Amino acid sequence: MIHTENLTRVFRRRDGSTITAVDRLSIDVTAGEVFGFLGPNGAGKTTTIRLLTCLIAPTGGRATVNGLEVGRDDTAIRRQVGLLTENPGLYDRLSALANLVFFARLYGVEDPSGQAARYLRLLGLWERRDEEVATFSKGMRQRLALARALLHEPPLLFLDEPTAGLDPEAARLVRDFIAELRRRGRTIFLCTHNLDEAERLCDRVAVFNSRLLILDTPANLRRHFFGRQVVFHLRAVPPDVLAQVAAQPYVQSAEAIANKLMVRLADPERHNPDLVRLLIAAGADIQFIGELRHSLEDVYLQLVREHRSE
């Protein structure tokens, strides 16, 4: 669906110096995937979206969107993508329905009124359809802008910070709608600062800061950086048991903290029973066992810190 090879965008400042916003980006996004694009402010995420939606031209490399070449098939690409920007422009003096009908006509939708009504209902705005957009909250505006991006049924949707600044209820409604689009097989390119949101919605995530730092599934990223850590809660840690556990060939690391034994394993499902038997034989009273789960946020923060240190 999206393919880039060394995609680059350089901007020239007024003083003649240059800044590279996107540096040799090479990624592939498959059809039906929710692809998360994560990075700090100023990392070049929005610039990447502008490149892929043909709003600006690359200064190097190449990209294709649904088989169409950026820089050659720009008009055709724009017809096949939907775009929700962080600050969507809507006509404040028009009603919600009039806004969508207007944009549906620009897209060449066969039934503008019917399509506008469909998405107003799907996004919970039908009861407010005749009210001016100027009276809408930020969350309602965001939902209306999402409806606008979907009017022409694009196979690929670009979402730039879709829940930024929304209250929890509005943010959840937008996330639920994105999840529904995912279930229907829509391809979504999602830029977000909300790491919990990315972890729940995205099939794969790319961490980006002018250049690509890493790309994988959230689960693989957590395993890559932190492994899997099992916590054995004991009544007390018997003498020498830590050394016995650490000596096992399948144990990556082990440490005792108070009455807890923290053990890093590559395959807990396979080796947890072995450790339970070892602990019981050593006289340990096991109260319960859990797994310490690191979040995608932990991975992201470590990557960004490493990149800054470089």
CATH class of the largest domain: Alpha Beta
Considering the protein shown, what is the CATH homologous superfamily of the largest domain? P-loop containing nucleotide triphosphate hydrolases
Give the overall silhouette: elongated
What is the N-to-C succession of helices and strands? EEEEHEEHEHHHEHEHEEHEHEEHEH
Strand order of the largest sheet: 7-8-9-4-10-11
The major sheet is characterized as: 6 strands, mixed
Summed over residues and divided by their number, the pLDDT gives a mean of: 89
Helix/strand-derived class? alpha/beta
How much of the residues is beta strand, in percent?
25-35%
Q: Low-confidence stretches at least 5 residues in length (pLDDT < 50)?
A: none
Helix content percent band: 25-40%
Say how many strands there are: 15
Distance between the termini: 33 Å
Q: What is the CATH fold-level name of the largest domain?
A: Rossmann fold
Query: Helical element count?
Result: 11
Task: Describe what you observe in this structure.
This protein is α/β, with parallel strands linked by helices. It is 38% helix and 28% strand. The chain has eleven helices and 15 strands. It has a six-stranded mixed β-sheet with strand order 7-8-9-4-10-11, with helices on both faces. Strands 1, 2, 3, 5 and 6 form a five-stranded antiparallel β-sheet that branches. A hairpin with a 2-residue loop joins β13 and β14.
